[in-house]
Each structure stands twice: as C-alpha cells, then as structure tokens.
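Sanity check

After download, print the first record. It should look like this:
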Amino acid sequence: MPSKYSNSVALSFAIHIVLAAILLFGDFSPPLKPTPIAAKMEPIQAVIVEKSAVDTQINKIKKQQADEAKKLKDLEESIAAAKAKRKNEEQRIKNLERERKKKAQEKRAADSAAKKAKANAADKLRKQKELERQQADKAASDARAKRLKEEVAAKKAENLRKKKAAERKRKEQEARERAAQQKLLAEQMAEDMANRQQARRQQMMTEVEKYTGIFYGLILRNLQGEHKGNSCSVTVHLTLEGSIKYVVVNSGGKIICDATENAVYRVNKFPMSKDVDVNKELVEVKLTFAPVE
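Expected structure tokens:
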C-alpha cells in the first residue's frame, strides 16, 4: 500500500516539473512585427513577469508536494498503527481462545475425576470395611499372643528375681566376710604403722636430742667461765642447712642473755643431720644456759 502512494506522488511531481520547465523556457509571445527600436523593451518586461509567475507556481507545486508527502507519511503511520492494533487484537483473541480451551479441558478433567471418584467411593468403602475386619482379627490375635508372651515373661522374671535374690544374699555374705578381713587387715596395718611411726619418732627424737646437745655445747663453749649463778632461756631459729635466722630471748637477766645471744651468733652455722625430718625438728630449738666456773 505505501508503494502505491509513493508512485502516485512521484508521478505528480514529474508532471509538475515538466509544466514548470515549459512555462520557464517556452516562448508564448506573438510573432514579431516590424516596430520601432524604442518598442523592443516591452517583451523583456513581459518575460520577467512570466518568470516570476513560474517561480511562484514552482513554489506552490513544491508546497503541494510537501503537503502530499506529509499526508502520505501520516497515512503510512496510521496504516502502521492500524496494523499494530490489529496484530495486538489478533494476539488477544488467540490468548482468549487458548484460555477458553484450557478452561474447557479443565472442566472435562474435573468432570472425569468426579465420575471416577464417585465410582471409586463404593469400592473404597468396601475395602475399608474389609480392612477394619482384618484389623479387628489381627488385634484379637495379637492380644492373645501378647497375653501368652507376658505370662512367659512373668514366669521368667520371677525365676530371675529368685535367682538374683539368692545371688544378692551370697554376695552380701561374701561382702561381710571380706569387710571383716579388710577391717582386721587395716587394724593390723594401722598397728604396724603406728609401731613403725613410734619407732621412727623415737629414732628422730634421739637424733634431735643428739644434735640439740651438740648445739648446746657449741653455744656453751662461747659462754665458759662467764656469768656464774645466772641463767638465760633462748629459742634459736635455724634454716634446714643450719644457718642462723634469728634468736628469741625467752627469759633471764639482760647481761647473761645478751652474752648468750652473742654466743649463738659466734657459732655462725650449726651442724645438721643427714635426715631431713630431723632437721625440720631442729629449725626451732629452745635452750637454757646457766654457766658455771
């Protein structure tokens, strides 16, 4: 359709161009007659006027062509819009038809399902009743089997209870006997331990007394011949290696106690036992000094 209108516009335009050329270049003046020279100016003026008219005519033709081209463009756009609208309408109709077919198919499927469901309802009820009967028979059978099983289990449980009771009594008797043996053994071990500890304590005390006498002799040697008739009680604090930490004066006259304290520090370091437990007893030794001539 647009091609047909384009051909018409082109043909019209060609015709107008030909007419314009004829008007522009054609000679429409009457045959020349012998006239005076002064009269030759008139045809020139006439030609100028005709050319202006031709220009006006050409412009008019061009305007008409432009108008026709615009009309043609508007017509083409209108035709394109109509085509698009028709295409959309055709698509809408197709969609509606597709939806209609879909709904019809759904309805047929629903009708078929309903008919099938109705046909299956009676069969389903019959099967349900049969299943209930089978379940009832099975429940009764299971109940009988369960009762027999429980009776057997109860008998086994009673036998096991009696067996465990006898086993418990036997173990309790064994536990009492074992506890009595363990108690006797523990008492014997405790007595033996006490004896060993007592022996060890006596040994330690003997060793402590020995080293206490040595400490006394070392300090007394530094007090020999001084402060007769007086006495002083001190507590000497030592390290485990025998070094003097400090001396505490417990009682006595100031002069003899000062001399005793000095005598202790003159010893510098006391000999200690090889037994660590003995040395732990010797780190704090209480001594009383009463020098004589």
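If your output differs, re-run the checksum step. Summary of this record's structure: Confidence is low (pLDDT under 50) at residues 34-42.
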